[in-house]
Design goal:
By secondary structure, the chain is mainly alpha-helical. It has helices spanning about 20-35, 45-50, 55-65, 85-95, 105-110, 115-130, and strands at about 10, 75.
Length: about 130
């Protein structure tokens, strides 16, 4: 495998209810990198952590990371420069890791996968502990 295999973040969409949630986590990840405040070892794990309402790394991975029984996932790729990126190589790398059908990333498709009950459960725990 190439070094591209280390540049994917895999997220379970059950707790993702909108594109803005992912975009916010990506933005927060890039801010943490820019100010040298990353709490994890790489951009992928930092992005998963940034999705979490808490700062507990293992809790973030348990809730937002993919599991052995995951049937859907959101795949994120961090890279330095799109002009240097070979999109075909990236697609081949991803297809060697993940078997499935690629669908467009939009709110309509996300609405098919998120679990509102689970989202309420996760958010209510944070509100009670705060």
């Amino acid at each position: 495998m190439s070094d591209l295999s280390t540049s994917f973040a895999f997220v379970d969409p059950k707790l993702i209810c909108s594109q803005e949630q992912i975009y916010s986590a990506i933005y927060k990840t890039l801010v943490e990198v820019n100010y040298n405040r990353m709490r994890t070892r790489n951009l992928n794990s930092e992005c998963v952590l940034c999705l979490s309402p808490t700062s507990n790394i293992s809790d973030a991975f348990q809730k937002f990371g993919i599991k052995d029984d995951s049937t859907e996932l959101i795949c994120l790729n961090f890279h330095n420069n799109t002009s240097d990126l070979d999109k075909e190589q990236l697609a081949n790398e991803l297809s060697s890791i993940v078997t499935g059908v690629e669908i467009e990333f939009n709110d309509k498709n996300l609405s098919r996968f998120y679990d509102e009950t689970l989202i309420r459960k996760v958010c209510s725990k944070v509100i009670h502990y705060a």
